[in-house]
Amino acid sequence: MNDIRTKIRQFILSELLLDESEENLQDDTPLRKGILDSLGTVQMVSFIESEWEIEVGAMEADDTNFGTINGLVPFIERKLQKQQKQ
Amino acid sequence: MLSAGIRSLAVILPDEVRDNDYWRQKYPEIAQAEQRWFKKKAKANGHKAQEARITRETDSLLFDATMAPYLDDPFHGTIERRVLKPGETTTSLALRAARKAIEVANIPPTEIDLLISHSMFPDRMGVGDAAFIAKKLDYQGGAFNIDATCAGGLTALLTACAFVQSGQARNVLVVTATNFSRAIDELDASSRITGDGAGAFIISQEKQGYGWLGAKSIHTGETCGAWGLEAAPDLTNSTTGGTKIKLVTTNNTMQAIRVSFGPYLRRCTEGALEAANVKIEDIKFFIFHTATAWLADYSAKVLEIDPERTINTYPWYGNIGPAIMPVSLHHAACLGKLQHGDLVLLYMFGGNAQAVAAVMRWGDTKLGPMPLGIPNKAAEFENLRMRSELIESLI
Question: Which ipTM score applies to this complex?
């Protein structure tokens, strides 16, 4: 879980928040306001899909799953658990 | 059954050109974002890392690879777009296209039996523009509206062909117009990649083997909710009652396109080819839904065709929604890329509606003029290529 959280944080800081201080990105920082816009969301989806080899559906990148880092981590975990069961 | 095809085709792009300086000057933060992008490109990071992660050949990953050069650009590959001035409306733009299509077809309006309109978006809430266009023409036939979002122009065209094929109409006027500059708030990032435009067709009986040969459409229910509409005040006072239709993109919009555009393209194309009883190698030219800077390239890759067999009007106009189809078809014919007897495949994707592909054999279509300021020589037209290439040369 911490591994997922760390990788998500690193991706946001390195690819989406180029000039932002690390302290300004908290686990509950709203990502939908200025960080994950329509194209930023695709970048994040693309990262998640390639990093954990899971697929994100057309409407799964919603505010619940992609609203904060706290939403993203359990979303990825659920996807991974579902994949292991199959 | 009769054959139906395009007797005339005219397009109208607004005279007002809006380039990227419009946003750079009004919104310094966008200019700053562009400067950051320049620096990032100069360091050659980001995009290469993104492309290096692609290990599986899926439509989504292909989408990511073709999109990558445009991700951090605040204009996402758009160089300029045409926009309506205050006082101009969707109806006035559509009307200009309709009049030109009738003029070049050299047909009296009394011989037109039906008008089909698709506007994105009409000048009022709830009712489309068909009757409002019809009453300004010297025309007495029927008029109705069709809605299939960005696939609406092609859907209206095929509906018109069906009326002519079945003998229910001799000639049908199809008009499609886009007014994104009024429908999208200019602080919404989508406004930087969209513009306005209109196209009109006269659909008439055609020689056997010409015109519409086959089509396939599939609903895009998978994308429902990725865009929304709401009523908003029209500050230009150009729309009825001062209220306009506002297009609201969501953070899910591009993901919905990423996941669904390619599979729908493949399935619709296969279906249209089968319906027309031709093979993909028989198709001379392709008209794709160039709603972003990379969709022409992406579509060519999905279908594994030479990108030279299509046209990309995006650098000139941005995303002009349902008007992409008539404008691309018109420009391809005017630039000599499409010749008499050629088979052409058209594909349009309408989110919250349907995706549709159609195969047509190009006949003796009469064409309206190229818009003012747009070169009518292929080499000059293509000289303004992708913004990323333009920027590469500056760095």
Answer: 0.84
